[in-house]
Every structure is written in structure tokens, then in C-alpha cells.
Amino acid sequence: MNDNASGSIPEVYAAFSDDGGLLAIAGTTTTSNSTTSKSTISKSSLACIALEYFSEGGANVVYSLRPALVEKTIHGLAGARLGTTTESPNLARRLQGKVLRLRKVQEPAQGDAETTPYVPTAEVERYLHEGIEPRLGTDYLVKHDMIKVDPKLIKACNSALATGEEAKVRPKRRKGDRLNENEPHALLLDDMRPEPGVSFMIEFKPKWLSDSPNPQRLKRRRCRTCALRTMRNAEKGKKAGRSPTAGFCPLALTSSGAALEKIIDHFLFANGVQDHPLWKSHGDRVTERLAQDFTSGSTVTLLSRLRELENDLDPHGCLSFEGHQQLQNEGALDDLELAMTLRDCTIFARLTWEPSGPLELRLADLDRKDWRTRLERWCATERALIDGGWYEGAEKNADILRPREICQLWAS
Ligand SMILES: [Zn+2]
């Protein structure tokens, strides 16, 4: 789940050019000297936008875009006054309803967080086109538009993040994370934020929609996601002051009745929907509508498609690739990689408070999970789950931070 700032991280002003979709720095305040370089921007199509910090995850920071006006001549572009996007209809169209995603430097992780090697934006974009779209189609994908970014702009964003840290308005667990100043690209993505008073949004990671194919002979009482969550909670329990992750069982996402109702309630709570002033008057209808969509609407269609792909792409589990076999199975490993990528996606559902309005679904966080750098860790996790008895519910000394069992397999 992404974090949002609790206060205001300084805005960064940028010049946006439709000529190749370049974002270059125009200053960090409306009165500062700008530093855009001469060679990179065409005078003909240039507008100024403010980048407003909006949220961040482990690998990216997301900015919303606001038309702005910087009353300064850009260095090296004498006479080129920056307009706003409203003065540049083409730019306005390209930026309308978009957010900007900039990539973080990924350094070795601390604690129990997973270390992930850096994946450049161009590679993220290529994988979306060549890996994901042919399998999943484009209807449910967040639309993406790759643009070039001036390194000076990323530097300015990093300074603003540091200022936000000093002012204690940036999420604590993201402290020290910085954007990659050597990354030449960024992605413009659909802005899935709800319209205040009209719609709201829930986001969730569906994780493993089928059980792991690995422990074939075990008498399973937990699915892969529930087994891993329970193991991680037990590890956390050994550290003072850590609380267990509640979570949900993904197998229940495509079920019905009380199990599904509990999950919907969990999503509404986790996304703060129940705190909204409209909840009191609209809560029942909203819950009913979601339940309907999860059992016979677009949500269950999407989840079923994801589950089908996971099963087709990973029929034997990562342990079947251990040892010498991996050298001969690159195609199958690419499939496993795609299955693992899909298992880490985020689903955004934006729907109106009034039941007659639309319910829109989009998938995001589909960054490639390169098997070359991850297979060993996937296998180690699988081994730990099997050997520790976490699938069977036969683990030892796991009761320190174990919440109530919620797995569909446990209940059946
Ligand atoms: Zn489960």
C-alpha cells in the first residue's frame, strides 16, 4: 500500500514540453531562478506545471500535476515565457487526468523489507507492452505514457523530499529514500484518485489467487498468502513492539457469503471509506454494490482472469526450477516471472457513492519481477514455508503474534 504525506512537501515547478514529452526544472519556488538547459527544450510548446507530492511506495514517488505560472524567463531561452497548460491545449490534453511517477534508487533494504534490484522506467514500460498487455489486454491497465525527464528536476524533487523529512511531513518509513537522478524517464499514469463528494476508491493487492503449486503432497490448511503472512507475523513477534499484519485470504476474494462480506468490510476500513461523511447515508448501498460486483460483476471477471493466468503461467511452482533445470527452461521461467508479477499487482476500484454511477477497475504495480535475480529467494521462501510447517498449520512456537486464522482452507 502506498503512503501519503501527512503535511505538505514543497512543490516543484517544472517546464513541460510536448516535444518528446520532456519535463525540465523551472524552479522550486515561483521566484527562484530557473535552471533549464538550453539544448533540451523547444520554445514552441512549453507550459509550466507544479508537481505536488501525492504518495509513494517502495520503488516510486507519485506526483499530481497542477497548471502553474512561473514568472521567470528560463535560462537559455530568452524571451520564452512559460505559459500554463491552459494556454497550451495540446499539453493540457496530454496531462489531463494524469499523475507523474518517478523512480526511486533502490538500495539494500533494512530489516525485513525485501531488497529489489533497480528496474529502469524504460524497462517497466517495455514489460507492460510486451509482457503484460498481450496476456491481459489493455482494458484494465492504468494507461501509461513515457516521457523524458531532466536530471535537474529529479534533483529538485529530492531536495523537496529532504525538506519534507526535516519538517516531519513525509511518511517515516520512507525516510532516506531518494529518486534516481540517473533515470532519464518517467511515466505519466491515469490519476485514479476519486472526485471528492462524488466517488471513492479502494485499493488492494489480490496476491496469490490460487494456492501455491509447490507443496503437492502436504495436507494444506493455509494458502500461500496466508502461510506467508503467518510466518512473517511470527518473525515480527520476536521483535518487540511489532504488531501483526491483519490481511485477508485471497481465496475468499472469489467466494461469496460471510467470507466475502468480511473482506469487503476490511477493504472499506483499510481505505478509510468508513470514515467519510457520506458513509452514514450511503454505506449500506455501497457495501451491497461491491458485494454484487465481486460475485457477478467486473471485479470477479478480472480476478478470475488473473487466477487463470497465474495457474497457466506457473503450473509447477518455483521449486521445479531448482538446480540444473533452469538453464533449459528460460521460456517457462519467463512465465513464472509473469505469474509472480501478477501476484504482486495492485487493483484500484473507483466507484461513485450513488449506485447508478460507474465502477472503474484498473491494475497497477506491474513492474517486472526478474527471475534472474529473484528465483533463489522465491525458492528459499517456499522451502521455509514447507519446512516450517506453515502450509499445514503445524509450525512450532508461532503463537506469539498469530491473529485468528482466516484462511479459506483452514475453515473448510
Ligand atoms: Zn488463505
Written account of the structure:
This protein has 412 residues and is an alpha+beta fold. The protein has two domains: 12-190, Inositol-pentakisphosphate 2-kinase, N-lobe (Phosphorylase Kinase, domain 1); 199-411, no CATH class. 33% of the residues lie in helices and 17% in strands. It is built from ten helices and eleven strands. The strands form two sheets. Strands 1-2-7-8-6-4-3 form a seven-stranded mixed β-barrel. A three-stranded antiparallel sheet has the order 9-10-11. A hairpin with a 4-residue loop joins strand 1 and strand 2. Mean pLDDT is 83; it is low at 28-44 and 73-81. Zinc ion binds at residues 222-223, 225-226, 249, 251, 407-409.
Largest sheet composition: 7 strands, mixed, barrel
Distance between the termini: 29 Å
Structural classification: alpha+beta
Number of domains: 2
The spatial strand order of the largest sheet comes to 1-2-7-8-6-4-3
What quaternary form is this? Answer: single chain
The unique ligands bound to this protein are: zinc ion
- Number of helices, where a helix is a run of at least 4 consecutive DSSP H or I residues: 10
Unreliable segments of 5+ consecutive residues:
28-44, 73-81
- The number of strands is 11
What is the average of the pLDDT values? 83
Report the helical percentage: 25-40%
Q: Note the overall shape.
A: globular
Q: Give the ordered list of helices and strands.
A: EEEEEHEHEHEEHHHHHEEHH
Reconstruct the topology from this structure.
Elements: E1 12-17, E2 22-27, E3 46-56, E4 60-67, E5 83-84, H1 89-95, E6 98-103, H2 121-136, E7 144-149, H3 151-166, E8 185-190, E9 199-204, H4 224-237, H5 257-270, H6 279-296, H7 298-313, H8 330-342, E10 346-352, E11 359-364, H9 371-387, H10 408-411
Parallel strand pairs: 2-7, 3-5
Antiparallel strand pairs: 1-2, 1-3, 3-4, 4-6, 6-8, 7-8, 9-10, 10-11
Helix pairs in contact: 5-6, 6-7, 7-8
Bound molecules: zinc ion (ZN).
Zinc ion is lined by residues 222-223, 225-226, 249, 251, 407-409.
